[in-house]
Amino acid sequence: MWGPEGLDEVEAELLGPPEELKGRNVLEIGAGAAQCSRWLAAQGARPVALDISHRQLQHALRIGGSFPLVCADAGSLPFGDASFDLACSAYGALPFVADPVLVLREVRRVLRPGGRFVFSVTHPIRWAFPDEPGPEGLSVSGSYFDRTPYVEQDDQGRAVYVEHHRTVGDRVRDVVAAGLRLVDLVEPEWPAWNTAEWGGWSPLRGHLIPGTAIFVCERD
Questions:
Q1: Is 83 exposed, middle or buried, given 0-12, 13-18 or 19+ CB atoms closer than 10 A?
Q2: Which of 77, 31, 119, 85 is nearest to 219 (CA)?
Q3: Is 135 part of a structural domain of the chain?
Q4: For the chain, which terminal residue's Cβ has fewer other Cβ atoms within 10 angstroms, N or C?
Q5: Residue 182 is part of a domain; what is its CATH number?
Q6: Which of 81, 59, 83, 85 is nearest to 71 (CA)?
Q7: Ramachandran category for residue 204: left, alpha or beta (phi over 0 → left; psi -120 to 50 → alpha)
Q8: 160-218 per-position pLDDT tens digit
Q9: Do residues 84 and 27 touch, judged by C-beta distance below 8 A?
Q10: pLDDT tens column, 198-207
Q11: pLDDT over 90 at 95, yes or no
Q12: Has residue 203 been placed in a domain?
């Protein structure tokens, strides 16, 4: 799945037709419990699941899968140049780093020429609205252009969660600055079958404002 709307890769084919994934080396960045890598392996691909969180990778290990799990920083990928045919990230890594260009440049480095990187993030317009699934989540409460990070702290004042806001224009410029070519920008519509509410996600909001932005990039 590329996001809470429910758009899956079987339908979207953003990495290419599933039958063409067999034998391809694929890097999943910000893999969490490696759900995407598990699906890729089932298609015959050779995925590597990378995340900075050791705990998330422990979850992946418990669920199982015959592919490598790598605990590392997305801004300093421990792989040689041109190691992968494809890379993907579903809500992983990029929203949580202050310098996304650093990550994108690393992804470009480890991709082979012609390689594709597809990543999804919360749609930037959501930054201006409250994170509520009901009607209260439909009124603008902040500036879309305010790039102040969202930070949660523990009782000692230490940051335990940080998310960085980038506008759509920022994201496009980040991709270009990293030397990648933007092939497509997908904004999935909320499907009629999806009746789920989760956090700020709901059919009410999903039918009116986009929730996910998927950037399809290539290394020329």
A1: middle
A2: 85
A3: no
A4: C
A5: 3.40.50.150
A6: 59
A7: alpha
A8: 999 999 999 999 999 999 999 999 999 999 999 999 999 899 999 999 999 999 999 99
A9: yes
A10: 989 999 999 9
A11: yes
A12: no
